[in-house]
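Researcher: Re-running this chain for the archive, since the previous output was lost when a drive failed. Same request as before.
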Amino acid sequence: MILSKRNELGILSNFAATAFTFRGKRYASVEGFWQMMLYPESQGDARAKTPGIVWPHTRDEVAQMTAFDAKDAGTLAEENMRKMSIDWVTFEGKRMAYRSATKGEHYRLIVEAMRAKLDQNPKVREILLATGNLILRPDHTTEAGEPAEWRYQEIWMEMRSELQRK
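Model: Regenerated structure tokens:
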């Protein structure tokens, strides 16, 4: 089953406006959570100190974005990261690889954020369980060797299995 943003399954997309609270902070979407990690956490952050680099948004602004607004903010941040030769993001002051070949810290944070979305949005749970045992597929082209956290459909199927066992 394709997780299209054009029908009710779109609620499972990281782009969906499904607000959740994670570690005491509110996020408008999983995409906003994901992309805000690319932005400097403070003025002391190495990313904020690089001469000639302009950050078009604050981290807090990105955390409140959804859909393509969040994705576009992330694309701008990734351009900055390329200019600085940075391949890491931060959360709560901790640096971690952004595109890891293994299920590292970034993957675990994305899974935790998705779980918070699931736990705090009853409609997400309802729609996920309604997919039964169908294989979920993304509505976009995937890349060979993409990081595990990009495969959100697999994460949803794992969470669905956990819910079904309960």
